[in-house]
């Protein structure tokens, strides 16, 4: 509790002990999984609590993981899908949010109403009709099927609209006087003034789609198109269950990109999540 | 006189034209997004509602309108009720825990500068981790004979259960994985909420004689966090309704539906048994749960501002 109150020595010790126990639980799967990815099967299944491997088996586990499944491909798919989704979301949401916050026109409230309704409807509700639609178009099992349903982000529109509203109207009026088209105003005035909101949204979007399993699970059948989350499920399916070392190595590989990105840009990640909390 | 009228009508026309032009630009900018919202969210939702009234099976040539028959079947469907109940039990287990722990972590972290950044980073780390991948590690840690948890329990003389294969424990074990990931997310939102409480309120409380930590919490911190707590609870509830990944990866709803949940059941009916119409009807139940939470949130918010 803030407010300039200092804790007593006992309270500080208790705080440290409690937080450290919590931290140990939070870190346990990362550390234990990483350690297992370096161990031979015999050690993994020895039921020992030893953290460090007695004989280092990391090289074997990681090469086995790469041989057993196209892990690199999963990661590339993740980048293609998350990148594609993000680009479309920005291209469609930003102009719409700008129109909603800076233009008055009949139907504006209707569009904003649709945004508010959309905020309540997750992909799980629309999944069956969307699946039928993609099947009709012959687009199942394609990147298009992975990206298209998320091309519009109502959350993005909602977030940007709020942010754009704070941009002074004078700034936009001045740009108009200077002969900027509306399109130019968006990309050269509004967007540069909104980087915090855009990076926050980007982090939010990439994190959620990198982690999404439900939709890829439904529309993708081939290993070559699997994003990381689905890749893990495929990897598990092929796994006999005994060979846990390569499994853990694969886990480390698909988890590492976002975790490393977070560790490198913590402030931005945390701001991104906090800003996504303005939804309330 | 007539010149004035002419001028004012001309001005009026210019104004109308400008307004029309503005409307055209507005629509031009919003139209692509509006079309996509219609095509990807609103029409599919309406279609799901229509499909729920049919006997459509994936790939079938014929489809007929069967009214509420899917809902009648659902009413009698034991598996559906089990999935429904499991989802609610899972939510009842995970929401209080992850909201409470998130709040506790935020309060403790803010209470003193020592290790503040490090703890915040560590607690947030699970949020960025790929859930299905980490679920695999948890499966390993929860292994009945050789997992970290049961080996440790055995050393203090307790025989741990088979966490993910016991009907009594599987839901709690999956819930634990959810709490592990959600706590850090909630902590971050609570930390932001704490930042929003003005330090002057604490000073005022001190002047009023609220000296102990507990008093400051009940008089200032807790009321100051009301809006945040409501939001965190709502979003955690919605996330917990959506439990799917851990079930699909670790248990496939088993053993004997003990971990079957709404979304997994919808997936199975719709895409394994190919009963599209029936699965759509279940989707509407899922949507109804979401809308109920949204309504409670709106009520509660109105209560606050009143």
TrEMBL record, chain A:
<feature type="transmembrane region" description="Helical">
    <location>
        <begin position="247"/>
        <end position="265"/>
    </location>
</feature>
<protein>
    <submittedName>
        <fullName>Carbohydrate ABC transporter permease</fullName>
    </submittedName>
</protein>
<feature type="transmembrane region" description="Helical">
    <location>
        <begin position="185"/>
        <end position="207"/>
    </location>
</feature>
<feature type="transmembrane region" description="Helical">
    <location>
        <begin position="143"/>
        <end position="164"/>
    </location>
</feature>
<dbReference type="GO" id="GO:0005886">
    <property type="term" value="C:plasma membrane"/>
</dbReference>
<keyword id="KW-0812">Transmembrane</keyword>
<comment type="similarity">
    <text>Belongs to the binding-protein-dependent transport system permease family.</text>
</comment>
<feature type="transmembrane region" description="Helical">
    <location>
        <begin position="12"/>
        <end position="35"/>
    </location>
</feature>
<dbReference type="InterPro" id="IPR035906">
    <property type="entry name" value="MetI-like_sf"/>
</dbReference>
<keyword id="KW-0813">Transport</keyword>
<feature type="transmembrane region" description="Helical">
    <location>
        <begin position="110"/>
        <end position="131"/>
    </location>
</feature>
<keyword id="KW-0472">Membrane</keyword>
<dbReference type="Pfam" id="PF00528">
    <property type="entry name" value="BPD_transp_1"/>
</dbReference>
<keyword id="KW-1003">Cell membrane</keyword>
<keyword id="KW-1133">Transmembrane helix</keyword>
<dbReference type="InterPro" id="IPR000515">
    <property type="entry name" value="MetI-like"/>
</dbReference>
<feature type="transmembrane region" description="Helical">
    <location>
        <begin position="74"/>
        <end position="98"/>
    </location>
</feature>
<feature type="domain" description="ABC transmembrane type-1">
    <location>
        <begin position="75"/>
        <end position="265"/>
    </location>
</feature>
<dbReference type="GO" id="GO:0055085">
    <property type="term" value="P:transmembrane transport"/>
</dbReference>
From TrEMBL, chain B:
<keyword id="KW-0813">Transport</keyword>
<protein>
    <submittedName>
        <fullName>Sugar ABC transporter permease</fullName>
    </submittedName>
</protein>
<dbReference type="InterPro" id="IPR035906">
    <property type="entry name" value="MetI-like_sf"/>
</dbReference>
<dbReference type="GO" id="GO:0005886">
    <property type="term" value="C:plasma membrane"/>
</dbReference>
<feature type="transmembrane region" description="Helical">
    <location>
        <begin position="20"/>
        <end position="43"/>
    </location>
</feature>
<keyword id="KW-1003">Cell membrane</keyword>
<dbReference type="InterPro" id="IPR000515">
    <property type="entry name" value="MetI-like"/>
</dbReference>
<feature type="transmembrane region" description="Helical">
    <location>
        <begin position="220"/>
        <end position="241"/>
    </location>
</feature>
<dbReference type="InterPro" id="IPR051393">
    <property type="entry name" value="ABC_transporter_permease"/>
</dbReference>
<feature type="transmembrane region" description="Helical">
    <location>
        <begin position="121"/>
        <end position="141"/>
    </location>
</feature>
<keyword id="KW-1133">Transmembrane helix</keyword>
<dbReference type="GO" id="GO:0055085">
    <property type="term" value="P:transmembrane transport"/>
</dbReference>
<keyword id="KW-0812">Transmembrane</keyword>
<keyword id="KW-0472">Membrane</keyword>
<feature type="transmembrane region" description="Helical">
    <location>
        <begin position="88"/>
        <end position="109"/>
    </location>
</feature>
<feature type="transmembrane region" description="Helical">
    <location>
        <begin position="169"/>
        <end position="192"/>
    </location>
</feature>
<feature type="domain" description="ABC transmembrane type-1">
    <location>
        <begin position="84"/>
        <end position="297"/>
    </location>
</feature>
<feature type="transmembrane region" description="Helical">
    <location>
        <begin position="277"/>
        <end position="296"/>
    </location>
</feature>
């Amino acid at each position: 509790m803030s407010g300039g109150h200092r804790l007593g020595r006992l309270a500080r010790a208790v705080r440290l002990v409690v937080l450290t126990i919590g931290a140990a639980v939070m870190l346990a799967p990362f550390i234990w999984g990483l350690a297992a990815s370096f161990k031979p099967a015999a050690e993994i299944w020895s039921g020992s609590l030893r953290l460090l491997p007695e004989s280092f088996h990391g090289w074997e586990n990681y090469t086995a993981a790469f041989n057993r499944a196209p892990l690199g491909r999963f990661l590339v798919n993740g980048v293609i899908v998350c990148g594609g989704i993000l680009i479309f979301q920005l291209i469609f949401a930003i102009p719409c949010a700008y129109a909603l916050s800076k233009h008055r026109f009949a139907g504006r409230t209707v569009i904003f109403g649709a945004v508010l309704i959309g905020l309540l409807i997750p992909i799980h509700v629309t999944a069956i009709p969307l699946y039928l639609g993609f099947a009709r178009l012959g687009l199942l099992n394609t990147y298009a099927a992975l990206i298209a349903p998320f091309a519009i982000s109502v959350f993005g529109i909602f977030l940007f609209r709020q942010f754009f509203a704070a941009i002074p109207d004078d700034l936009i009026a001045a740009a108009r006087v200077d002969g900027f088209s509306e399109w130019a105003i968006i990309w050269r005035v509004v967007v540069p003034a909104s980087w915090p909101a855009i990076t926050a949204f980007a982090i939010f979007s990439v994190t959620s789609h990198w982690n999404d399993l439900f939709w890829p699970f439904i529309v993708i059948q081939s290993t070559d198109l699997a994003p990381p989350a689905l890749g893990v499920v495929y990897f598990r399916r092929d796994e006999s269950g005994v060979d846990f070392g390569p499994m853990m190595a694969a886990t480390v590989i698909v988890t590492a990109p976002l975790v490393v990105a977070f560790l490198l840009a913590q402030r931005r990640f945390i701001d991104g999540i906090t800003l996504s909390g303005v939804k309330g | 006189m007539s010149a004035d009228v002419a001028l004012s009508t001309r001005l009026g026309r210019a104004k109308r034209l400008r307004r029309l032009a503005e409307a055209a630009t507005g629509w031009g900018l919003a139209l692509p997004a509006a079309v996509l919202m219609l095509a990807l969210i609103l029409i599919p939702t309406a279609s799901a509602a229509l499909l729920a009234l049919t006997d459509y099976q994936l790939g079938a040539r014929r489809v007929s309108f069967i009214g509420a028959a899917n809902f009648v079947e659902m009413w009698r469907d034991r598996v559906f009720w089990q999935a429904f109940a499991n989802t609610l039990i899972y939510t009842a287990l995970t929401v209080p825990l992850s909201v409470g722990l998130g709040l506790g972590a935020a309060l403790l972290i803010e209470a003193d500068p020592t290790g503040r950044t490090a703890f915040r980073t560590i607690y947030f780390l699970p949020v960025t981790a790929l859930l299905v991948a980490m679920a695999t590690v948890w499966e390993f840690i929860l292994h009945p004979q050789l997992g970290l948890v049961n080996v440790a329990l055995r050393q203090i003389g307790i025989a741990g259960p088979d966490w993910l294969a016991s009907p009594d424990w599987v839901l709690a074990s999956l819930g634990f994985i959810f709490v592990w990931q959600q706590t850090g997310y909630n902590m971050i939102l609570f930390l932001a909420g704490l930042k929003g409480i003005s330090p002057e309120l604490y000073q005022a409380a001190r002047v009023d004689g609220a000296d102990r930590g507990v008093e400051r919490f009940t008089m200032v911190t807790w009321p100051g966090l009301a809006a945040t707590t409501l939001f965190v609870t709502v979003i955690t509830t919605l996330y917990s309704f959506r439990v799917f990944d851990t079930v699909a990866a670790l248990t496939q709803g088993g053993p004997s539906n003990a971990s079957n949940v709404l979304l997994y059941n919808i997936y199975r009916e719709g895409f394994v048994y190919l009963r599209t119409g029936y699965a759509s009807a279940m989707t509407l139940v899922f949507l109804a749960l979401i809308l109920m939470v949204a309504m409670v949130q709106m009520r509660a918010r109105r209560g606050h501002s009143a």
